Every structure is written in C-alpha cells, then in structure tokens.
Amino acid sequence: MAGNTRHFMKNVLIWTGKATFCFVLFLSLTVTASADASQGPGSERVMMPSRAALTGATESFPVKPPDQLFPAASVSRKVAFPLFTGVHSIDFTLGVLPDTQAYSKSLPEIFPKMNQWLVANREALNLKYVFHLGDIVNNLDQPYQWHTASQAMHRFDAASVPYGVIAGNHDVGYSIDYQIYSKYFGEKRFRDRPWYGGSYKDNRGHYDLIDAGGKKFIMIGMGWGIGREEVAWLNQTLKHYKDRTAILCVHEYLNGESQRSIEGNLVYEKVVRTNANVRMVLSGHFYGAARRVDQIDDNLDGRPDRKVIQILTDYQSLQGGQGFIRVMGFDLSHGRVYVRTYSPLNGKTHVFRNDQENFTVSLEMHEK
After folding, report:
1. Which one of 156, 169, 201, 348 has the fewest CB atoms closer than 10 angstroms to its CB?
2. In angstroms, rounded to a whole number, what is the distance separating the alpha carbons of residues 331 and 307?
3. Crossing angle of helices 110-120/143-159, nearest 10°?
4. Contact indicator for 244, 366 with CB cutoff of 8 Å
C-alpha cells in the first residue's frame, strides 16, 4: 500500500510539472502574440542602426532604415498654391530660409512666424524639406540669440518637417569655433530623424536623404570654413550616394553680381564639377538675390552633360530681412523649378526686380 501511494504521488508530481510547463509556454506565446499585434497589421520591427559620425575620408557610412519609414510622395499629387498661380504641374516644394541673424538678435518675433508659415502650409505646398543658409545668429557669444533661433527651428521639429542647417561666419566667428553651434544644432538634435543621413564633425557638415515625387535626393551642406578635409568629406559622401540628385548648401558661394567668391570657386571646382549628381547650389552671406547656370562637360567630349543652378538668397540688409523666404516648386515631368519669394510678414513677393526673385529654371534630374 505504501509503495502504491509513493508511485501515485510521483505520477502526480510529473503531471503537475508538465502542466506547469504548458501553462508557462501558453503565457509566453500569448504575450508574444499580443506584443506583435500591437505593432499593427503589416508592420515590422526595425532595429535602428547606430549612426557613427563621418569625420574623414576613411569613415564608413551608416546604413539607413528601410524606405517605408519615410515613403516617397505620390507622383500624381500636384501642388495647388497661390504662389504658383497658373502652374498646375508642380510635384512638391522645398523651402529656403536665408540668413536669420537679425531676427535672432533684435527681431525675435519674426523668426518663428516664417517657420510657422511653412509648417501651416506644409500640406498645401507638399513641402518636403527646408534649407537654412547659415548665419543663424548675429553674435555667437550671446546665448539669448541661440535660444531664439533654437525655439524658432523647433517649429519644424514639432511638426516633423525635414530640415537642415549650416553655420555661417556669424555662427562660428572668424576663428571658426563650432562649440556653441554644436550645442544647439549638433548631430544630437537630428540623428534620430529618419531623413537624417549623417554628420561631419558634429554637424559641421551633414547630409539628408529625401525621396520626393518618385525621385531620390541627397541634401548636403557644409558650414563656414571649407578646406581640404571638408572638400574630401563632401566628395566622399556625394560619390557614395551617386544615384541621388544632389542639392548642395553652403553659406558663402555666389555674390549679388552672380559671381562666385574665392570659397565659392573652390567648392565649384573641387566639388560641383567633380560630382555629376550635383544639380543645384544654394547660398547666402552676400546681400541680394542672384543666380547663374553653368554647363559642365563631365565626360570631356566637348559637349555639356548637365546644368548646375546656383542661387543666392539673402535679405538681411533689408531691415533685418522682413521675413522673406524662398519656396521652390519642382515640376519633374517638364524638368523645371519654379522659384518663388514671399514674406509671411508683409505678404510681398519681391524686393528687387520681380524677375530676380520669381523665376523658372530648367532642371534635369540625375539618373544613374
């Protein structure tokens, strides 16, 4: 009898252990299924890779997350907006903020109004990206100016509008000190954004990957003080993304007479001419509105292979700038860019001759 009892109790313990294991397994599967379901139908988990800063020609490039995280705009969607009255073929727009130093210094109410106008009209404009051309502040050693600028640019952060900034001479001084700039607009501010590609020396230079109108772009910028190392990084990045149409942003490049400065010529000869995907260069620094188009023979057969549009935008000497910004409408099917100037502050569309500030240029997309 005692032996039978011991045998019975042994079987009970074995059965209890099996039941406990099955119950734990059931709970595990239930929790896993619940967690997967919370991702939503058709979704998948993506492990975001770390983004090591690109600090030299030997640096490796970060792997970008899948395009599904930042899908391209529908090609069929067209922009209908008063700035482009009479034009019905624009696929998307890009915004341009010229030197904002006067707003940060003494007209703090204007800066956020400019940015908020772009945010408020984002859908109507099908706005895909905003460039800041440098000289974010006027005095780099005045924290209140950086705070004003940072808060104004936060309008884009809050609305998840892709944008990029570069430093001008007022932001880093002629000693080229990027410490304060990096504190407010370093890589940390941007690196978790899906469109942010990578950084050179804590966002002294950077690139962003944007898909718009069914086309792939690389928006690439370099701040004040461009030398051999900066040129090397620009060339390395542009060659790595040679399948994307490139728009280059530098602070000093073209002057009010449509002539390139010394630094502008350096960038043109060492970067623009040597990378066939560069199709547009944007700059500020020199007061005025000017442009030029150069034709480049990439394969040296005596015939031009591409046109490069170079545009200056700078209104800082106009009572601080009066809130003027640029909006560029891209018509991909006809190969045109409609450049429009506007001030959300006073509603005006030009300061100089109208054809200097509101014009159309041809643009051939880079196809690899």
Report:
1. 348
2. 16
3. 10
4. yes
211, 218 contact by CB (below 8 A): no
Cα(327)–Cα(170) distance, rounded to whole angstroms? 24
Residue 182 token pair: 């990096």
Strands 336-342 and 359-362: antiparallel
Tokens 């461009």 correspond to: 226
How many whole angstroms separate alpha carbon 19 and alpha carbon 123? Answer: 57
**Under 8 Å between Cβ of 249 and 282:** yes
* Contact call for residues 60 and 197 (beta carbons, < 8 A): no
pLDDT of residue 139: 98
pLDDT given for residue 368 in this prediction: 65
Residue pLDDT, tens place only, 191-247: 999 999 999 999 999 999 999 999 999 999 999 999 999 999 999 999 999 999 999
| Domains of the chain, earliest start first | 79-362 (3.60.21.10)
Whether the Cβ atoms of residue 247 and residue 365 lie closer than 8 Å to each other: no
Beta bridge partners of 282: 249, 311
Q: Do 163 and 129 touch, CB atoms closer than 8 A?
A: yes
- Asked if residue 215 lies in contact with residue 365, where contact means CB atoms within 8 angstroms, the answer is yes
Residue 45 makes CB contacts below 8 A (sequence gap 6+) with: 39
Tokens (6 digits) for 14: 């074995």
Q: How many residues does the chain have?
A: 368
Place of tokens 């880093």: 172
Report d(CA 331, CA 74) in Å as an integer: 13
Structure tokens at 151: 């808060």
* pLDDT at residue 83 in the model: 96
Question: Are the C-beta atoms of residues 200 and 206 closer than 8 Å to each other?
Answer: yes
- b (16+ CB within 10 A) / e for 238-254: bebbeebbbbbbbbbbb
CA dist list (Å): 166 to 182, 186, 211: 11, 10, 21
> Phi and psi for 104 in degrees, rounded to 5?
-65, -30
**DSSP states of 209-224 as a string?**
EEEETTEEEEEEEE-S
93, burial (CB in 10 Å: exposed 0-12, middle 13-18, buried 19+): buried
Show the low-confidence residues of the chain (pLDDT under 50). Answer: 1-75
Q: What confidence score (pLDDT) does residue 112 get?
A: 97
Question: Residue 76: what pLDDT?
Answer: 59
